[in-house]
């Protein structure tokens, strides 16, 4: 009974199971991809056929969630400074406590066990500046994607707020203009920098904030259409889904044809194509719910819920520090038993750690945000953030 209480939590009601599936797939693709060096090369080569870009899925999903939250909040309460601050409070209490917990853990372990480690390496990661313009893998490498999202959370709502309150452009029009402008701007920026050879200086443009923030806008556009053109969104969900599946497989074929990350295709088409594919899946997946959960559905939902903690724990802490460094003497070797031991520890420690962190740290710190929300003078009968509760 005690064990059951420790390892279970309420998954909530009225969840959007289709989005849980996408988020579960996204984190699994990321964790499996980072598992490459712990597997025999032949095994990973086989698995790679079934692995897609999990980070892109996260970006589009995040844009869809944030877009829905902002739209529903603004349409119910107006775009006041209270709504802007409340949005930031809710986002940052959702993401920052967990992130800084792992920054602290990694810092302490690195000071104790990594000989050439310097505290100066941590500083850019405190303010999400580690990959604004260049890649920085020195400390918490996989946090590059969180940095992209945090700059999105800060900048896009602020731009929209200025459009509405300073330039007096209606919110619906502002959202559409900003979304299309950013998609076009970053597309031309990548093309320009590629044409002038500047992308080579970034080492890996895929993990730079200014090169990837537009990926999130595909989800925002999905939120825009789903709210303002709901009938169209629902009517054509199966057509969109089929188109999305086709685009995913086209993307996978091209993945094996164009392997140079600085090629024209990789820079200009690779990510927009995959983000468009995920966008096409959203109409159906955002309407797919379950009345009853079997074991498989429950497992999918659990993994979806712990995905953020799993993202933070699995690579720099479990793989790089514990497996590759601190306990490398235990996991050394290229024989079958060593591979089994490494993978058992990698998956077991990652999933168990993520589960415990989610239940006993992430959930409690996230709930704190409700205590310090700013109160708007404008009253609403229903919460504009109801949508977020269904998939958070």
UniProtKB/TrEMBL annotation:
EC nos: 2.3.1.-
Top-level EC class as recorded in UniProt: transferase
GO BP annotations listed: lipopolysaccharide biosynthetic process
Keyword Membrane found: yes
Keyword presence, Zinc: no
Gene Ontology MF terms: acyltransferase activity, transferring groups other than amino-acyl groups
Highest rank taxon of the organism: Bacteria
Keywords: Acyltransferase, Membrane, Transferase, Transmembrane, Transmembrane helix
Domain Acyltransferase per the UniProt entry, residue ranges: 18-358
Annotated protein name in UniProt: O-acetyltransferase OatA
Annotated source species: Chryseobacterium jejuense
